[in-house]
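Journal club side-thread
Mid-discussion, someone asked how the predicted structure for our own chain would compare to the paper's figures. Pasting it here so we can look after the session.
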Amino acid sequence: MGQTNSIEESLSDRHPDAKQAGQHMVIDKAEWVPGKHPDPNRRHEGQTEYLERYLRCIQCGVEVLDEEHLPDQCEVERR
């Protein structure tokens, strides 16, 4: 348990905006994706890229579009 707590404390120091989501510590991320937005209501004429927002677990590295898609278990990466 001690090693896990020290990993979480270290990650929290580097990512003060991280929040707990089940077993995961997630941060909000965004990146520009080429092409038109997949949602027709958010797509516009001449669009060549769109901003995709997602969550990334700073412990296991899993990336999902919505918190409900996070796996139940967080397989912490050993760095």
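Post-session note: The first strand starts at residue 19 and ends at 21.
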